[in-house]
Amino acid sequence: SYYTKAKFSTSAPDILHLDQSSGIEVAFAGRSNAGKSSALNTLTRQKNLARTSKTPGRTQLINVFELEEDLRLVDLPGYGFAKVPLAMKLKWQKALGEYLQKRECLKGLVVLMDIRHPFKDLDQDLIRWAVGADIPVLALLTKADKLKAGKRKAQVLMAREASLAFCGDVTVHAFSSLNRLGLPELERKLDEWFGLEKPIVD
Ligand code: GDP
Questions:
Q1: Mean pLDDT for the chain?
Q2: 134 CA → ligand 1 middle, Å
Q3: Confidence tier at 51 by pLDDT (50, 70, 90)
Q4: N or C: which end of the chain has fewer CB within 10 A?
Q5: Whole-structure pTM value
Q6: Is the CB of 182 under 6 A from ligand 1?
Q7: Distance CA 29, CA 109 (A)
Q8: Phi, psi of 199 (to 5 degrees)
Q9: 31 lines ligand 1 (CB under 6 A)
Q10: Which PROSITE patterns does the record cross-reference, listed alphabetically (predicted)?
Q11: Is 178 in the pocket of ligand 1 (CB under 6 A)?
């Protein structure tokens, strides 16, 4: 796949200090522990591209991975930790809001949520901001392997129904880093955002 080419490019202390702004960028966000690092590693077929970390609450950097010049994946810090001071939460929210609104190269946002409890408050805030800024959203329901097929399908249908409330471009798919369920759908959406869709040949 194209995404195996991803290489670590830079880290930034916050989203307002990302240097490059040319080309196309797709950001990945989610509550801590939602499975974001695992999904990035699965997408790129690299075991340690995004570190899967179990040390919560630390100030995390934003990591930028380059596919090629001017095509980037941006790994935003996980949110939702109770222990993070309120002032820091508010600062982060403000920065995130500005990033979504002002970052012209941002063409899509992947929001990762545990399939067993999607659309928590902060997830909803984030999606609402993205829709308000006209950024298309892919809601990936992670750890789908934890549910049996019937329950999994029911969760996806429920989440699709719930996603209509955002009145925007919000696509929902189940995903698993364990068995790669949903990986083709993720790649297809990224291809679309990066303008990498294959031409249709008769
Ligand atoms: P992050 O904090 O969002 O980057 O989450 P991680 O990728 O570090 O994953 C958090 C925890 O969930 C880790 O223990 C992972 O092994 C586990 N996990 C992540 N993805 C999956 C998945 O698709 N299936 C299962 N069963 N566990 C997963």
A1: 91
A2: 29
A3: confident
A4: C
A5: 0.94
A6: no
A7: 7
A8: -65, 145
A9: no
A10: G_ENGB
A11: yes
SS3 16: helix
Q: Which of 30-44, 59-73, 106-120 has the lowest mean pLDDT?
A: 59-73
Pairing of strands 71-75, 137-142: unpaired
CA–centroid distance, 49 to ligand 1, in Å, is 14
Residues 6+ apart with CB under 8 A from 2: 67, 187, 191, 196
> Residue 141 is which amino acid?
L
ipTM of model = 0.99
| DSSP bridge pairs for 31 | 79
For tokens 């399939």, name the residue. 115
Ligand 1 atom with the shortest distance to the CA of 176: 23
Atom of ligand 1 nearest to the CA of 179: 23
Instruction: Return the SS3 of 139.
Output: strand
Q: Can you say whether residue 42 is alpha, beta or left, with left for phi > 0 and alpha for psi between -120 and 50 degrees?
A: alpha
Torsion sign (Cα): 193, 196, 157, 118: negative
Domains of the chain as residue ranges with CATH: 2-194 (3.40.50.300)
Q: Token match 């869709």: residue?
A: 197
CA angle in degrees (0–180, nearest 5) for 71-8-193: 25
The residue contributing the CA closest to ligand 1 atom 28 is 143
